[in-house]
Design a protein that fits this description.
By secondary structure, the protein is an all-alpha fold. 73% of the residues lie in helices and 0% in strands. It is globular and about 45 Å long.
């Protein structure tokens, strides 16, 4: 079994620490359908929000379409408690990556705006909501 397969298996562990680690490491494989399904489950982990936090932070740090697509879908699908954690990760990412850097802010806005036409309904809806949270967003 290769490392990617091991991480997919680890993501299903009963131990939250193993799911945290899997979410962090699987994030580099975002954009692959099977991995994306697992990452979305980790983002929406109903048994431990530490898994949500770690996976969201790692995906957002990518600052790319694959990571933002998953985050947007989770944003739309999340239950209230998980949604609070996603909101915290989003606020933190905006502060760290985009709030004070106009180029990062523009890139983030452009990437999320493009997701409004994504084939995945949850990603589309989440992107529409995320655009409204951006500083000086025209959405």
């Amino acid at each position: 079994m290769d490392t990617h397969e091991q991480l997919l298996h680890l993501a299903m562990s009963d131990r939250y620490a193993e799911r945290v680690r899997a979410g962090q490491l699987l994030s580099r494989f975002a954009g692959e359908p099977r991995t994306d399904n697992v990452l979305l489950k980790l983002l929406l982990d109903s048994t431990d929000t530490a898994v949500t936090d770690a996976t969201a932070e790692t995906l957002l740090a990518r600052q790319d379409t694959a990571g933002l697509r998953l985050f947007a879908a989770a944003w739309h699908l999340a239950q209230p408690e998980t949604g609070e954690h996603l909101n915290s990760a989003w606020s933190s990412a905006l502060y760290r990556h985009a709030r004070y850097n106009p180029e990062d802010q523009q890139r983030l806005q452009t990437t999320i705006a493009a997701l409004r036409d994504d084939p995945n309904e949850a990603a589309r809806q989440g992107a529409r909501h995320l655009l409204k949270t951006l500083p000086s967003s025209p959405a």
